[in-house]
Amino acid sequence: MYDIKWIRDNSELFEAGRSRRGLSPISEKLLMLDDARRHAIGQLQVSQERRNFISKEIGIAFKEGDHARAEALKSEVAVIKENWDRLEQEEKQAKEDLEAALLELPNMPMDDVPVGLNEHDNLEVSRWGVVREFSFQPKEHFDLGEKLGLMDFEAAAKISGARFVVNKGQLAQLERALAQFMLDQHIHVNGYMEVNPPLLVRDDAMVGTAQLPKFRDDQFSVSSGYWLIPTAEVPLTNLVRESILEEKQLPLRLTAGTYCFRAEAGAAGRDTRGMIRQHQFFKVELVSITTPQQSLIEHERMTACAENILQALALPYRKMLLCSGDMGFASQKTYDLEVWLPGQNTYREISSCSICGDFQARRMNARYRPHSSKTTQFVHTLNGSGIAVGRALVAVLENYQEEDGSVIIPEILRPYMRGLDRISPVA
Description:
Blueprint: H1 4-9, H2 11-20, H3 27-63, H4 67-103, E1 123-128, H5 141-148, E2 151-152, H6 153-159, E3 166-167, H7 169-189, E4 193-194, E5 200-201, H8 203-208, E6 220-222, E7 226-228, H9 233-237, E8 244-246, E9 252-261, E10 280-290, H10 295-312, E11 317-321, E12 333-341, E13 346-355, H11 359-364, E14 367-369, E15 377-378, E16 380-388, H12 389-399, E17 407-408, E18 422-423
Parallel strand pairs: 4-9, 8-14
Antiparallel strand pairs: 1-11, 2-3, 5-7, 6-7, 9-10, 10-16, 11-12, 12-13, 13-16, 14-15, 17-18
């Protein structure tokens, strides 16, 4: 969220950032809304000052025995009282109009973010791993899972509809093993604190991380006024909302493995078969709360933590710097990690790591107190997938498949699978 004063003082810089995202100018409209807000506040202040002044003058008039003047002044106070509710409502509405407009504004891209319209304009930064050459035609994960007799989309559809799956037996164990391995890695090697957060959150939490109001249709709401989290970024980041941290507490690194829920309102016709895009999925999330000086270094570190998971699983991937038109709403800069899927013969996103600057902190009013300072500053927030467990399962199935339909278990996961080294089709 932006500070309207900053927009007023830096309108050219603000519009340049919007232009890089392919957005039209809006500062003139925003400043008009701010002018209306200022005017409403001014009107209320003038009325309050006049009311205070008249109250004193009434006392003086009575003291001097000037009852006619006192009555006239009392009549003026009555008019002020009569208009007071209207002025308060006008001020409230003007503030809400400006805030609503500011909440719709995406974050500004950093200078090193390439300008572009969509995923075709993203910049490949690096590749890791050797793409396996198969002596047979590799299958997609859903064909493998169904042949194993352990991945059931038909049963899931009967229970919940499209974009759900039932994984069973050793495949369910493999999915759990992936999540456990990722959490152990981030906790014991990468220094993140594990958190078990709520999966239901209130409006304020969703607004704080910018899922609301812009992306309301992409979320699942429940009738009691809560939202199912689309990612653990929401509760983890909101742990510092309306707080003032000490600088010595930063960087604060948090991780959680949770189910996530997304309506996928804009994904009609895309990835309708399989586990790539589902309404419910499991993901290990990484969140960092830092000072402004730490955030760029922390972004590189977080991305490396996600890369280490893919490297430990020996899954080939590429690192992409997203262009200005493909970045998320709250992001200033984003790296996507795209894992190789031989069944699709392409790379697909498996992790997204973003730096948000103070964009979310302003929405949450999350601050810190620098060393030897009496004033506070907004923290910087970062989030990343560390990684998407369902997509990791997809990648393991496709990259470790054998011609007979069996799937080799990556060595790093075998201790989590009680030594099992292969999943074979059910007889």
